[in-house]
Amino acid sequence: MDPKLSHPYKDHSEPYRWDDDKRDDIEELYEWLQHQPRYPKMTKNHVHQFYHSCYYNKEETKKAFQKYVELRASAPECFGIRDPLLPAMQNVYTATNMVALPKLTIDGYRILSYRLKDYTPTRLIFGEAVKAFNMFNDVVISVDGPINGYVVIFDMEGVCLRHLTRVQLGPLRNFMAYIQEAHPVRLKKIYIVHAAWFVNQAFAIARPFIKTELMSLLHFTTGGPDEIFPLDILPLEYGGELKSLDEFHEEQKERLEKEYREWLIDSSNLKLLPKEKKSDKKQMLDANANAYDSPVASLNKLSID
After folding, report:
1. Tell me: the pLDDT tens digits for 120-173?
2. For residue 281, is pLDDT > 50?
3. Phi, psi (5° rounding) for residue 282?
4. Can you tell me the distance from the alpha carbon of 152 to that of 47, in angstroms, rounded to the nearest whole number?
5. Can you tell me the distance from the alpha carbon of 208 to that of 16, in angstroms, rounded to the nearest whole number?
6. Is the pLDDT reported for residue 283 higher than 80?
7. Which of 52, 101, 189, 261 could make an SS bond with 146 (beta carbons 3.0 to 4.6 A apart)?
8. What confidence score (pLDDT) does residue 278 get?
9. At CA 146, angle to CA 14 and CA 257, rounded to 5?
10. How far apart (Å, rounded) are the C-alpha atoms in residues 210 and 176?
11. For residue 267, what are the contacts with CB-CB under 8 A and spacing of at least 6?
12. Is 291 a residue whose pLDDT tops 90?
């Protein structure tokens, strides 16, 4: 089933923030997209989004598209049934803070802040947390459109060794593949703040799935975000001048639930279509054969004067 609503931007029709000198390339890539028989229905805004995120490299754009639709089809634990009101998703959103901070950095980057609100290790199921995280990110991208890039803050405050035992390797592998090979944004830096004493053990779990490029973006510190960013763009909890993470989180959670629920559910269809079964092909061939046989059979019954 193809998506019915506007993607990847809910409220922006195309062309949205296209670079004038890239329009011919967008048309060329869209033509290529149309000839991929198992791809879902995707838009020219999708093409520009991916092309922009791949720094205008056509071949990398095609690879990103392929990985995007493949992962969304093969990893339902990360991308299936994208309803923010499902109890499992509500559990994640009430146990965490996921926030896109309103002020951009001096380089025009959006800061995304993630942290635990409930420190109970058994509260979250890793695959469900990944799905909720991906849904939140898709909404942020829809609101922002193509921007210079994103900087991520992962706050380890409250994370303990028992949390590591909850990590599921399947969802972790798919998540890391998605972030590195298919996520249509420019990721600029990832800061792991308030890093715990066991951060090396935690990192060892993910290390087999991390490529060199992503490795270069990682920065670990036992300090907080106030040691990295100016206070005027940080929330209250980090000594900043903005309102609290809890307030931002509740506002953005409400946006997911009220403004973006149907859009997120519809986006579940942005995935690789299943292969056509042999039996389906045979039925089609038989139907075609019968369609041609029928007129021939009827010709035998014609009487010629």
Report:
1. 999 999 999 999 999 999 999 999 999 999 999 999 999 999 999 999 999 999
2. no
3. -65, -40
4. 24
5. 37
6. no
7. 52
8. 53
9. 85
10. 7
11. 3, 5, 7, 82, 138
12. no
Choose among 202, 70, 182: nearest CA to 137: 182
CA dist 264 and 201 (Å) reads 35
- Does 173 or 291 have the greater pLDDT score? 173
Cα–Cα distance, 47 to 253 (Å, whole number) = 28
Look-up of token digits 């059979």: 297
**pLDDT at res. 276:** 79
Read off the pLDDT of each residue in 198-212 and give the average, rounded to a whole number: 93
Residue type at 50?
Answer: F
Sequence-separated contacts (24+) of 173-177 with Cβ below 8 Å: 173/209, 174/71, 174/74, 174/75, 174/77, 174/78, 174/130, 175/78, 175/130, 175/133, 175/134, 176/206, 176/209, 176/210, 176/214, 177/67, 177/71, 177/209
Dist. CA 13–CA 56, nearest whole Å: 21
Burial of 127 (0-12, 13-18, 19+ CB in 10 A): buried
Nearest-angstrom CA–CA distance, 20 and 8: 20
